[in-house]
Amino acid sequence: MATTEKFLINPTNEFHVLRHFEFVDDLYKESLINKPYWYYDYSQKKYILTHISKNDIEYALETIGTKFYKNIEGIENPKKLLELIREKFVELISESKIRWTLDGENRVAKFTINHNYAVGMTNVLSINNLTKSDKDKIKSVARSRCLGENKVTVNTISGIELPFTSTIYVEIIETTQIPFYVMTAFPDCSVLDDSSDNISDDDLVFVV
Questions:
Q1: Element at 108 (helix H, strand E)
Q2: Which of 12, 71, 143, 152 is the most exposed place for a label (fewest CB within 10 A)?
């Protein structure tokens, strides 16, 4: 059952969302430095507690993925975006519309928010939808220099025209490793919708 008590706007969740921003102002960066946060270590498959450094923030902003446009009114930084998500989360709880699915030992809830403005590009594609010539252009690169995922690689490609989206995709994870919900959010890409849950990470291509 969903509960608002485990929905916390804290450095952990701000940092997870920060990885989907290309820009935040210096004042916001300073608000995160030296704050404790949990990051997920993909090699150990667990969350580890540490403190956010200046380099961590820059590495997060450099992370390859779907990115929010700069200075969108109302979601200029991860904290403001999480406040918007909390409003939607409370609304969905009141309407009994939060649906959890199992993902290993975790429970996951997904939903979308339609924003008033375009929030970013839909830059994630299925490798199966690319032409043979485009597939030949794919490069495998490190996703980021962030703690815990600096050995994670992703497929990338350039030179493909992309549409924009005004929809925000939200994912909330309930894990026994951490006492609060772990959250992320990014510009929605249809390839990541529930109907495409069977697409593996190896079949995803990021347009950069």
A1: strand 106-114
A2: 71
